[in-house]
Amino acid sequence: MRDASPQTIYLKDYTPFGYIIDAVDLTFRLDPTATRVISRLSLRPNPEASDPCFFLHGEDLKLISAKIDGQDIAPRLIEGGLEADVPNAPFVWETEVEINPQANTALEGLYMSNGMYCTQCEAQGFRKITYYPDRPDVMSVFTVRIEGNTDTTPQLLSNGNKVETGALSNSDAQFAVWHDPWPKPAYLFALVAGDLVAHQDSIVTMSGKTVQLAIWVRPGDENKCSFGMDALKKSMRWDEDVYGREYDLDEFNIVAVDDFNMGAMENKGLNIFNSSCVLASAETSTDANFERIEAIIAHEYFHNWTGNRITCRDWFQLCLKEGLTVFRDHQFTADERSAPVARIDNVLALRARQFPEDQGPLSHPVRPESFQEINNFYTATVYEKGAEVIGMLKTLVGDAAYAKALDLYFDRHDGDAATIEDWLKVFQDSTGRDLSQFKRWYSQSGTPQVTVREDYDGDTFTLHMSQSTAPSTEQPNKLPQVIPVAVGLLDDAGNEILPTQVLELDQDEKSFSFSGMSARPTPSILRNFSAPVMLTQEGGNSRRAFLLAHDTDPFNRWEAGRMLARASLVDSITTGSAPNPDYLSGLVAVLSDTTLDPAYRALMFGQPTQSELAGILHESSTAPDPQAIHDASETLRAAKAETLADMLPDLYAQNQVTGPFSPDAEAVGKRALANAALALLSRQDGGATAALQYQNSDNMTQQLAALAALLDVGAGDDHLAAFEAQWSHDRLVMDKWFSLQIMQAKPEDVADTTRRLTLHADFDMKNPNRFRAVMGALSMHHAGFHHDGGAAYTLLTDWLIKLDPLNPQTTARMCSAFQTWTRYDAGRQALLRAQLERLVATPNLSRDTSEMITRILG
Ligand code: PHE
Ligand code: ZN
């Protein structure tokens, strides 16, 4: 079989590789423009494969030589790699290639970032380093020798354990040899070389082994590592305590790089992080940054077992490692911080990113069945919905059975490249439960709609539930899924008369009865958001107000407030009505309840995003008017500021944090609540309190919240300039400065503000963080992006066209800004379509971007 860039790749076409690689020996002679890579593979025919074709992937490689068992050969160079005739017996394959890291702006393969060499191989970057069967089911033991200039690359890092170092004779170069004893696929390979300093520590694992830990950063960033190191140690301990998983090498290294397409990467023993996802200090990072860093460090560390020790057979199985690892990092965050707050944050993210994906042209199953460019499938559906699916499985089988199944999974599949079938079979075998229907969560795309009707006959209370999922082109007939619906019942005084029960809605329609009810109870449905569905239920706003006041499930209590706000906003947008007074008074009650966690109360301040509202209007067959949505949202915020006016100064004052800065859950919660109050308070005092806070703040959370509040009331221009002067040396802080101005601009000014910022000397399109800070903010400002005339559409498209030849992956990811285009009125759709067609017609457009736009155009 040859898989030289076929157009579309199908899950059903999987076949194993024809050879087994017993060992990989790599030598790198580093040079910015002409790095030599010598690869020696010890191979033998794979008895389980039927196709003996010897095809190796390779891209942008200059072949210097190829040998079999020491004899020069001339392989056939074909698109996407090479082919050769090889012995039907064990043999040694050797190639030498030359690559140019400096010219690599795609940030995939071996590239340079700020003078430092680094790699990114997931999903298919290793083929840009050497000829290799670049597929996750080919696992081997790697030994890596790196040779580099002693001055420019004093540190030479790779996977596994460092086994040898030394000077190279007759030169100013040195070498290091790394050996990774654990067989791994090429996508987990990593190499870093540069002038780096380490923040070091160590940990003793559960079996008493000492592991050396290090976070490697550019000189100057040493003081931003201690939080990440603590997070790493907590993660290692947590995985031992909760999953019984111990770390398996003598050292664990993390490196921070400034130019990175994604958040971070779980390379075996050598995690590489976008610097924004690891560097933290009180002065430069917000509380949200701290929380994200903690979660990402945990996520990458957890991959050591879910992803590395057990990897994926092929890229269709991506959710096997990602869904599970996201689920595990969510569990970790819930344990480290507040569980209800963590759950609400996850659901907010799911609704903001996954629901629009699942309800638009990019919708795909958690396990897709085909793709053109795998990089386009690192999506909210694979990650976030993939994690929800595991959460449902755990809810259905129970905590103890889940723990038992996971033990079996690690026992049975350690060292394997596994599939979703393997994963489900573990649960089936250990619980005896038939999961064939549950599997539809992996194969059917779309967000199920659950509708609940109620019945009461004086004794029995019945919930009639139904489910449906909108058809899609590939799946015109969606079958019913197993939906765990957690339900509790409350009496009129708000007492819980039936504690949470999990009902299994596994048919199109199903009814659940509760007898012996002397009065009609109030149900609290889909507690803790027990399934990633959209819920329609009875009771309207009065039910919501009741649950906002009384629900004993913290998620649903918050949800009731959210739904009240949503209903109020939809009414204002469609009928021009004033904000719902029940929502406002309910909010007063919740916010005054000091027994509630400040972080939780801070979340209560929130209201549905404008993009979410656009989606809801679209679902109810109304073309959303972005300006009207914006105005209604502002009106509701103003009404809140007014209704809460008397409370705001106290809420603000009572939640000030004194003493040295700490990003612990309690302090974070207080700052979140105080800053939510500050945002509204500024509307009353014209920004006086915010200006004071800006002046006195000793941390970025306070400084940035004050600046945002000042910009919001039109009083922030001087502060903005001062902020720039203070922070122009810090790339990560300047990303915030770029974003904030766009986020806080009036809709009519968004495109101009963005254009002006692209002319700023520090706007560097080659840095993904900076590009996203600017273009991401543009696309996320709903009313600004969709402002009349379409200037923002054109601007974003111009920049996507400019970035695509340099960095296809980041360009393609940004294209999702257009995924909701069919929601809007005919005028906007025409403007959007014109830009999408201009983009897709661009000569030499990357496979990444062209697949995205083609799918979006439908
Ligand atoms: N596997 C990484 C993670 O989820 C994400 C990633 C994918 C990073 C592709 C880089 C490239 O942790
Ligand atoms: Zn991951």
UniProtKB/TrEMBL annotation:
The gene is pepN. Keywords: Aminopeptidase, Hydrolase, Metal-binding, Metalloprotease, Protease, Zinc. Residues 98-188 form the Aminopeptidase N-like N-terminal domain. It comes from Shimia litoralis. GO terms for biological process: proteolysis. PANTHER family: PUROMYCIN-SENSITIVE AMINOPEPTIDASE (PTHR46322). One of its GO terms (molecular function) is zinc ion binding. The keyword Protease applies. Gene3D superfamilies: 2.60.40.1840, 3.30.2010.30, Neutral Protease Domain 2, Peptidase M1, alanyl aminopeptidase, C-terminal domain, tricorn interacting facor f3 domain. Its cofactor is Zn(2+). Transmembrane segments: none annotated. Residues 543-857 form the Peptidase M1 alanyl aminopeptidase C-terminal domain. Its EC number is 3.4.11.2. Residues 446-537 form the Peptidase M1 alanyl aminopeptidase Ig-like fold domain. Belongs to the peptidase M1 family. InterPro entries: Aminopeptidase_N-like_N, Aminopeptidase_N-like_N_sf, PepN_Ig-like_sf, Peptidase_M1, Peptidase_M1_dom, Peptidase_M1_pepN, Peptidase_M1_pepN_C, Peptidase_M1_pepN_C_sf. The keyword Metal-binding applies. This is Aminopeptidase N. Residues 227-441 form the Peptidase M1 membrane alanine aminopeptidase domain. It catalyses: Release of an N-terminal amino acid, Xaa-|-Yaa- from a peptide, amide or arylamide. Xaa is preferably Ala, but may be most amino acids including Pro (slow action). When a terminal hydrophobic residue is followed by a prolyl residue, the two may be released as an intact Xaa-Pro dipeptide.
